[in-house]
Batch of 2 targets.
Target 1
Amino acid sequence: MRAWQGRDVISILDFTRDELEQLFAAAEEMEEKLSRGKPPRLLEGRIVALAFFEPSTRTRLSFEAAVKRLGGETIGFSGEEATSLAKGENLADTIRMLDSYADLIVMRHRYEGAALYAAEIAEHPLINAGDGRQHHPTQAMLDLYTVRKLFGTVDGLVYGVLGDLRYGRAASSFILSLTLYRPSKVYLISPRLLRVRPEVRMVLEESGVRFVETESLEEVLPELDVLYVTRIQRERFPDPQEYEKVRGSYRVTLDLLERLAKPDLKVLHPLPRVDEIDYRVDGSRYAAYFLQARLGVPVRMALVSLVLGVWP
Ligand code: NCD
């Protein structure tokens, strides 16, 4: 097992299952300390840069909450228009500057590969909070943590990942993360236009995880333990007409779940939701997406502490 300290977090596949289990053990302790209202001030005197070139609510604010709960400080921006990039500065210069102001950089950017590029420039560790449609490793970490909390394990369950598997980085990273475990089966449920990308399919094939691609949620719903729903990533479609073809093509309703799902099925969603989960599902036994969003804080507290070498 490699030490966590000083590591960049670019893809969920940079980590082994044992390393993730170490993270989850730390997250459990953070959760417990949070619930007692006594999180340790591990980050006193540390500054974390939150460089969000793309919109974000949960990811940015949960990183910010995580750092502040631990007594650290954050600097940063949301949206490129707020930075000197709008004046023509290049990304490399922006990163060099952040690197000289902070002990750790958390970055989200619309280009695939931007996080890896920035990590090569920065001397301090860099955490990828989403690069285009490619990776969203910290989302996958909290997704796995949520499943583990709900079911006691990630192994042996039947998963359905529904929605935009082509442009969705949260879905891609979650699917990749399952290859580090032993799920019983993974259904990739999407309209044909939004099927999983070849590089993700290749990792699945090589991992030996049993997976099936389908367009029909109804057919596979009775088998599922976990249904991971994602929104159609409208902003990533190169052609608005392509978006029109798939818009509104799936919707999870309470009626559908009551009719077909196992009573213990749990519905996850990285959020934001648009119209793919009916609001009536929110108060039902199936909904786990608000719990999932809440767990982002202890997981990111654990992650930042491990990467900065202040835990255990
Ligand atoms: C996701 C993202 O930004 O990739 N959101 C998130 O971080 N929770 C999913 C999305 O935008 O649909």
Target 2
Amino acid sequence: MNLASWLAANARLRPNDPALLVGRRVVADYAHFAARVSSLAGWLTLNLALRPGDRIGLLMANVPEYLISLYACWEAGIVPAPVNAKLHPREIEWILADAGCKAVLATTELGQSLRPEDPRLAGLNIVDVESAEFAQACSQPGFGAPPALPGTHPAWLFYTSDTTGKPKGVMLSHGNLVSMSLCYYADVDRPEAADAYLYAAPISHGAGLYGFPHLRAGARHVLPESRGFDAAEILQLAPRLGRLSFFAAPTMVRRLVDEAAAAHKPGKHFRTIVYGGGPMYLQDIERAMQVMGPCLAQIYGQGETPMTITALSREMHARMHADPAYPRRRERLASVGVAQSCVDVRVVGDTGHPLPAGEIGEIVVRGPTVMQGYWNNREATQEAVQNGWLRTGDMGCFDEDGFLTLKDRSKDLIISGGSNIYPREVEEALLAHPAVQEVSVIGRHSVEWGEDVVAFVVPRPGEHLDTAELDALCLESIARFKRPKTYIVTDALPKNNYGKVLKTELRKRLLQAG
Ligand code: AMP
């Protein structure tokens, strides 16, 4: 099993079909795409001396070279570690070191933000994918057919934040990603060769993962000229390309809907807009359906079982769009749908026993999409996967018909604009300020972002806190999007008998303050 064999098959089946586009411009057909992949696989092996199982960081904006690099890694048996380009360079360096990457393939600006002199990056080869050298690497004689790999062979080191503040590398195998792709066909939508799949959100996450079912279908892969998410650009592209699909976080979908409504642009040129990765509120879904038509689908997943826990399919949305009297329409639209085909999903109580419909407990998942474990972190793996069941840390309940509704997150994860923010890493950044005695960070509901970050800060006795200084401190060590939007300076934090900060109490305070 090797994801690269899907590309090789398409190069034989539909060599002249358009494969890679930048905006409306075709930059490679399937034959050309596969040939460049093959050349790069050879170059990585021969020129960079990389071996099967070695890791490579991918640090890029959304450009065609991202996809070429992914498939080239697989053709050479190498394991890519795609890194979220929005992270702070110091966070990125930490990930590259943790994964033991021997090389990083980067777009120019992102590559230049790294410090090769840092001892943790000793021996790291930084390759600029926008250089003449890289273009040459993609046009030399090819490598041959992708080797068959065991289904458990690692295909993607997916870095996800966690409550300890340090990201963990989720090991996803070729088998995991093949199962995830097949679930897309069964539970989300059935892509076809005539479709165009747009990489509007970061390729290092959901947008990149959902490229695979579309590659299998032989669809067009479209990289936006803006190299990222731009609602106006997407609305212009849709009628020109036709049958456009993409994955995006709820915040992005909302922005697109606002733009479409303002421009009186109906969504008829879209095939499927998949939203997920964070909560989308009912009124936003209703509005999105009203403006964009019956093209929405929702997935609930997490890095440890990528995109694959439950789904509310495109077909289900279309039915509810067509029939305002659809049974329990509101509850269903507010749910995250039903278990996807290849996984068992349960809601369990404190002792791990399954709970009946209507009762809230932790959501656990078992099946072929569940990760192989965390990279170099056996202890965390054992905590996360018990008897084959992945503990998601999310709380929810099933209804009688198998629709799952998420209630809360047992971890204190904040999801802002579809990106995960763990309070601990923000707290650690703020605690580095000499005038800060204590700090606690929570999320607050935001119409624009889903949630935004609020920091309660206790100054050291006699000290005055300047929030501009705190903000500058965060900018030095964490990604911009993780900075608190609001600082609340307080005398003390509410705590329980064990000295643990009561975040529930802080949330109440925020609500009372309006
Ligand atoms: P990540 O591992 O970065 O993909 O984050 C996964 C977390 O995002 C999940 O554990 C959920 O808490 C949340 N999440 C994912 N999909 C949804 C969804 N459709 N609705 C609400 N929350 C979601």
